Amino acid sequence: MVKERGRKLIAQNRKARHDWSVLDTYETGIVLAGTEVKSLRQGKASLVDAFATVDDGEVWLRNVHIPEYTEGTWTNHEPRRSRKLLMHKDEIVRLVGKIQESGLSLVPLSLYFSDGKAKVELALARGKKAHDKRRDMAKRDAEREMARAIGRARKGKRT
């Protein structure tokens, strides 16, 4: 058996950075059943509407959809069950303090295999208001237009 190296992306929450201001990120392990791992190896998962909570000193990932394994039998898993995330106790205590004091949320950004182990990139984030989203889009558009103008200037074309 060949040991996997590197990082293989399974699922990404593309809308997370649009809807949330990411303040800090954490790499966490995730507790999975056998059929969940096999389903993830097929590249099937969805982080849409997923979030994490801290209950009784443990971090739980909720609303992640990992479809049932097609070759599975009666031992197949439930697609939207809550899954425990693996973090150090002191990290969890720090997270709880930040979440309670300033109204932040835990949002999963991506799900991937790192050296053969399933990992979740979890973000400590603050929700964006509609005007923040518009400002970010305008800033991105302005930067894109400046990059285009610089590219045209380098090629000797006038605008």
UniProtKB/TrEMBL annotation:
Keywords: Cytoplasm, RNA-binding. Gene3D superfamilies: 2.40.280.10. It holds the Pfam family SmpB. GO terms for molecular function: RNA binding. It is found in: Cytoplasm. Required for rescue of stalled ribosomes mediated by trans-translation. Binds to transfer-messenger RNA (tmRNA), required for stable association of tmRNA with ribosomes. tmRNA and SmpB together mimic tRNA shape, replacing the anticodon stem-loop with SmpB. tmRNA is encoded by the ssrA gene; the 2 termini fold to resemble tRNA(Ala) and it encodes a 'tag peptide', a short internal open reading frame. During trans-translation Ala-aminoacylated tmRNA acts like a tRNA, entering the A-site of stalled ribosomes, displacing the stalled mRNA. Belongs to the SmpB family. HAMAP family: SmpB (MF_00023). NCBIfam families: PRK05422.1, smpB. This is SsrA-binding protein. It comes from Saccharopolyspora montiporae. The gene is smpB.
